[in-house]
């Protein structure tokens, strides 16, 4: 620890808890209160209703939930496949080639999502590559934005696996395909599940690029929340926010349990 005195640690703990409560818990509590309120004209809301959550699971809001899940899972699974493939391919190259190719893979994470959205919109809005107004343009943006994180997780997992394990399998006559399916991938599975969880959470919460690209009928949850609050419908937007947070946390906890169980085998 950087603070050695007992009094200093106590002070630092109080400051940390205060900041956590003020900057993280308080906004969530306010959103939760708003999602159950009929009106909010004073310091505190007045009235209590489940109407906003009923609205969240019907009509356009329900379509937004399904759209977010479809885009999130499809982009995350494809990003996991590509990140795994890239990480496995790169470890066969020399250190210098690995370095530059890794930088190329990490590049999208350093570019603002709005810039990526604009670039994809310009690139795929005409000619034979036209995807504007389709699901695929949103899918492409989410894939670009999350692929660096899946690659990073899988690459980290590969560095934790000793090459001796695969060399033993090779010395026993195992083919490259057999070593991949029965040695490398089972050992790598906890990191793959963690990569899927991270990319899925990022995709479910993505707004910047999606706002520029989404076609009719493919508004995701963040886009719907932004649209509702922009029109002054704070209560319905708050209810959708609680739904988004709940879905994300539930998926993360389930995937984390799977990763831990696989890691213990």
Automatic annotation (TrEMBL):
Domain ABC transmembrane type-1: from-to ranges: 65-253
SUPFAM superfamilies linked: MetI-like
Compartments where found: Cell inner membrane; Cell membrane
Coiled coil, from the record: none
Gene3D superfamilies per UniProt: MetI-like (1.10.3720.10)
Keyword set, alphabetical order: Cell inner membrane, Cell membrane, Membrane, Transmembrane, Transmembrane helix, Transport
GO cellular component terms, A-Z: plasma membrane
InterPro entries the record matches: AminoethylPonate_ABC_PhnV (IPR017661), MetI-like (IPR000515), MetI-like_sf (IPR035906)
Membrane topology: Multi-pass membrane protein
PANTHER family: INNER MEMBRANE ABC TRANSPORTER PERMEASE PROTEIN YDCV
Protein name: 2-aminoethylphosphonate ABC transport system, membrane component PhnV
Annotated organism of origin: Providencia rettgeri
